[in-house]
Amino acid sequence: MPELVWRGVEVDGLERARVDEHGGVRVASIIDSARGRYSYELTCDADWTFRTLHLEALEGERAFDLERSADGVWTLDGEERDDLAEAIDLDLAASPLTNTLPIRRLDLAVDDEADIVTAYVSFPDLELVPDPQRYTRLDEDVYRYESLDSDFEADITVDARGFVLEYPGLFERL
Prior knowledge:
The longest helix is centred in the middle third of the chain and has 7 residues, at 100-106. The chain has a 15-stranded mixed beta sheet with strand order 8-7-6-5-4-3-2-1-15-14-13-12-11-10-9, with helices on one face. It has one domain (3-173). It is mainly β. The chain has one helix at residues 100-106, and strands at 3-8, 13-20, 25-33, 36-44, 50-57, 62-68, 74-76, 79-80, 89-92, 113-121, 128-139, 142-147, 153-158, 164-167, 171-173. Pfam families: Glycolipid_bind (PF06475). It comes from Pseudolysinimonas kribbensis. InterPro entries: Glycolipid-bd_prot_put.
C-alpha cells in the first residue's frame, strides 16, 4: 500500500494518503493544513467509481458519512441527497487525491474530454454541493481541469497511475 504525500501550496499543509487497490480501492488519509486537521477514508469500485466516504474534522469533532449506491443514490449520514443525482465522483477541495477518481474512471484518450458532476466538499466548512466539471486529457500525463460554474481551470500533471504530481498553485507531491 503506497503512501502518497502532497504539500499544499495555496493553503499551507500536508496530506498523507495510503491507497490500496486490491479488490476495489480503499484510501486512508490525514490532512494537516491551515484549514484544520482532517482524516478521511474512502472506497471506490475497482474502476474508481466512488462508493463511500467517512470524513472527520479532528478539531471541532465534526464528522459525516457519504455514500453513493450502485444505482446512483447519494446519502449523507443516511439521508438521501437528491441534489447529487447527477454526480458520480467525489471532490474534496483539500485533497488532490480525489482528482484521481474521474481521471482513472474516465480513462480518457489524449485530446478527449468529459463533462462530469462531482459531490464537492468545501473546507473548512464541510459543505456538500453538486459541482459540474470538465476533464480534458492534453497529454499522457497532463489533464486540464475546468470548473463549469466558474472561470477556474488548471493543467494537472499526474503519474502513470493517475495520481497528482502537480496541481499548479494548489498542490505538489513530495
